[in-house]
Specification:
The protein is an alpha/beta fold and about 375 residues long. Helix content is about 25%, strand content about 15%. The chain is built from 9 helices and 14 strands. The strands form 2 sheets. A 12-stranded mixed sheet has the order 1-2-3-4-5-6-7-8-9-12-13-14. It has a two-stranded antiparallel sheet with strand order 10-11. Helix 3 links the parallel strand 1 and strand 2. The longest helix is centred in the last third of the chain and has 24 residues. The radius of gyration is 24 Å and the shape is elongated. The C terminus is likely disordered.
Length: about 375
């Protein structure tokens, strides 16, 4: 049974897989006993082996049990959407690879039928706008209410704005790939619309210039708790409050810094984070909370060589001690007695960690290994 649950498909075995699941073109003539076993259908490694009709046929055979679908680059089109809309158990849908342009209205109708959808990666190609369709038409089909995580590229076409005419209430995670269109109006509008409810933000690209978001649009992401960025986002005062009025700390508790691609100007250290957690002391000697006062866990890519110098190691140790001390004080204020088991829990969840990237840039789903800075 596990053999067909998540088959590994490539050019060399794809046709055999199709013949196994689709012994006949019509389902009512001859069905396959293995089709109900398939829950993950990953066609990302296919190039010219499939066709639009074959993709639709496969979706039709596994529609009762399919939970995770990654569309192929060349063999998915508007003709595949009706079959996709019948996969009622689908929770993870990745359309980021497809090269065919899809009509926005047809895509919305297909997505609206997927009541259990949790993750959606939008296509990178430009869609086909429907004539006379308004961007925020209340009569348009809405994204599934179950949607929690959405991914799109910065080169997002304005026609995709119609997808966000009603934002699902559970949508709290956002992943952005590519950088060219970060300053474009569609992306700005989506950020303004989604920002207040986003708790998990992942920016999987390198910036054309530093200091772009929390310095300028900090008030957009008031609920942000987890942030993943590449190291070059941090140069030039990414978290700096220099150009804005000091405000309450962000609820950010977890920060992941990836190596990105290309050379890093210098090996970053942890001292800039220390300064943003505590901005100084008041006249009574009490710490003044900075923008990152709620920060508790920092993950830094091994590829940045951030511990290559003694100064880097000292800054990491100071930062880790600060994060642990802040968490201990927060628990004491909440009435928690600091026992040995509580201390172990604080040491396990708070501090500075290192990880090794094994996937695409910033893609933690590709796997990582972590180790704490201090034993």
């Amino acid at each position: 049974m596990d053999l067909y649950r998540a088959p590994i498909l490539a050019g060399w075995n794809f046709q055999l897989f199709v013949r196994t699941l689709c012994p006949s073109i019509n389902l009512h003539i001859r069905s396959s006993p293995t089709a109900p076993l398939v829950k993950v259908l990953d066609l990302s490694k296919l190039v010219h082996e499939g066709s639009n009709s074959v993709t639709g046929r496969l979706l039709g055979r596994v529609k009762e049990t399919l939970e995770d679908f990654i569309a192929p680059q060349t063999s998915f089109s508007v003709n595949s959407l009706p079959a996709l809309s019948k996969c009622m158990q689908l929770s993870h849908l990745d359309l980021s690879l497809i090269s065919a342009s899809l009509p926005v209205l047809d895509l919305l109708r297909a997505l609206g039928a997927l009541k259990k959808l949790v993750f959606l990666a939008l296509p990178r190609c430009s869609p086909i706008p429907s004539p006379h369709m308004l961007l925020y038409d209340p009569n348009l089909p809405a994204l599934p209410l179950s949607l929690r995580h959405i991914q799109f590229a910065c080169s997002l076409h304005p026609a995709y704005m119609s997808l966000f005419h009603r934002v699902p209430p559970q949508l709290t995670a956002l992943t952005v790939t590519d950088a060219p269109g970060w300053y474009s109006n569609p992306v700005d509008n989506i950020m303004m619309k989604l920002g207040p409810q986003i708790e998990d933000l992942r920016l999987q690209f390198r910036l054309p210039k530093p200091g772009f978001m929390l310095q300028d649009d900090r008030r957009t992401f008031l609920a942000l708790r987890r942030l993943q960025v590449s190291a070059d986002h941090l140069f030039g005062g990414f978290f700096s409050q220099t150009h804005q009025e000091p405000g309450p700390p962000l609820p950010l508790t977890d920060l992941t810094i990836t190596a990105g691609s290309g050379p890093i100007p210098q090996a970053p250290t942890c001292d800039f984070l220390y300064d943003e957690i505590i901005r100084g002391d008041d006249i009574h000697g009490r710490p003044i909370p900075g923008m990152l006062f709620c920060l508790r866990c920092v993950n830094i890519s091994h590829g940045l060589n951030w511990r290559s110098t003694k100064a880097g190691q000292d800054h990491a140790r100071d930062l880790q001690n600060l994060l642990i001390a802040l968490e201990r004080e927060a628990r004491e204020r909440a009435g928690v007695q600091i026992t040995e088991s509580v201390e172990r829990d604080i040491a396990r969840t708070c501090g500075v960690w290192e990880f090794v990237e094994r996937g695409s840039v910033g893609d933690l789903r590709g796997g990582l290994s972590s180790s704490v800075v201090l034993p």
